[in-house]
Write a structure and sequence with these properties.
Bit1; 5-stranded mixed sheet; two-stranded antiparallel sheet; DUF2000; DUF2000 domain-containing protein
Length: 136
């Protein structure tokens, strides 16, 4: 099935595996929180156990070095895309309020990004993420 929208997550390629997964989870949660229409229906197994709903469409995860992430982030900002960010200082905080404060303290062009998520029309997201490689 082809969707009109796309969810893309970009993580820095030099992060430890556990950090890549953590950043991906946080960035994906931002899309789900802002756009509830991307969530499908709850699941149920044949035994009648209920399970939480998930995204109704794939989430594509990319990796890039810091420079490429910065350029893609700038393209997303220039296009007015819906973006979630994760910066290095967020690894040192313990809660959402502190995370927001770390982001508020830096300008967009000086952000030490370790990842960002983007959601929007398929062609717009493709243009923002052009040249980045899918995470292996």
């Amino acid at each position: 099935m082809r969707f009109d929208t796309k969810i893309g997550i970009v993580v820095r390629d030099d992060l430890a595996a556990w950090r890549r997964l953590n950043v991906t989870a946080f960035l994906a949660s931002a899309v789900a929180g802002r756009f509830p229409e991307v969530i499908g229906e709850p699941y149920e197994d044949a035994s009648g156990n209920a399970y939480l709903p998930m995204f109704r469409q794939p989430v594509l995860v990319y990796e890039a070095d810091a420079g490429a992430i910065g350029k893609a982030h700038a393209r997303a900002l220039a296009r007015g895309m819906d973006i979630a960010v994760y910066i290095e200082e967020m690894f040192e905080t313990g809660h959402d309020e502190a995370n927001r404060a770390t982001v508020r303290a830096v300008t967009a062009d000086a952000m030490p990004l370790v990842g960002f998520g983007v959601y929007g029309p398929r062609n717009g997201v493709d243009k923002v993420l052009k040249g980045l490689r899918l995470h292996p």
